[in-house]
Amino acid sequence: MRKSIACGIAALALAGTFGAGPARADEPIQVSGTDIATQVESHFIPIPGNPMHGLSLERSVGGRSGTGPFASMQMITGITTNEIDLNQGTGKVTGYVLGSNSEGTVLSRINGKSSFIMDDKTKSPKGAVEGVWEIVDGTGRFVNMRGKGTYKAEFGGGNFTTVPWSGTISGFERGHQHSDLSR
């Protein structure tokens, strides 16, 4: 009888480990949060023959508050290239955002579209940008993470007041930390 109880307990423990236990890494997890970024560098390169149309290269730093694995993540840097038409007040945004916390780093690619007006007071664009993000790489606990979602933000004077975002991720093993941070 005692052997049957012990075998039953062992079977239940294994079932919890491999079956109905915590969410598996490949199950999608809903995530959302807010980034706050400050522009620290900006360059505008006009297209020859049309000084109102050009490319803008920008670098931002900031912080992130989010759900799940993105809680308390520092946004180390965001690098974007923008094709801007100053006459129409529109732009195409592409770039990368690198986030980090004590458990590793996450690299996301962003694509979006902006619309803006030139603020007479600050002599800089003021408007909104919205688009999509996709995780393309990670280290530490985020090494196998993949995900995608959307973002929408307002900006002015080189600063984003808030950048709300949401999406789904997979490949994140809750409660498991990878020891190889050299990737």
Can you give keywords for this protein?
183 residues; mainly beta; AOC barrel-like; eight-stranded antiparallel beta barrel; 1 helix; 8 strands; 9% helix; 63% strand; disordered C terminus
Report, as a whole number of angstroms, the end-to-end distance: 51 Å
Which segments are poorly predicted (pLDDT under 50) over 5 or more consecutive residues?
1-23, 175-183
Question: Topology as H/E string?
Answer: HEEEEEEEE
User: In CATH terms, what is the architecture?
Assistant: Beta Barrel
CATH fold-level label: AOC barrel-like
Number of strands: 8
> Which homologous superfamily in CATH is the superfamily?
SO1590-like
Structural class: mainly beta
Fold and architecture overview:
This protein is mostly beta strands. The chain has a single domain, classed as AOC barrel-like, CATH 2.40.350.10. The chain is built from one helix and eight strands, in the order αββββββββ. It has one helix at residues 2-18; strands spanning 29-47, 50-66, 73-85, 90-101, 104-119, 124-138, 146-156, 159-170. It has an eight-stranded antiparallel barrel with strand order 1-2-3-4-5-6-7-8. A hairpin with a 2-residue loop joins strand 4 (90-101) and strand 5 (104-119). The termini are far apart. Mean pLDDT is 79; it is low at 1-23 and 175-183.
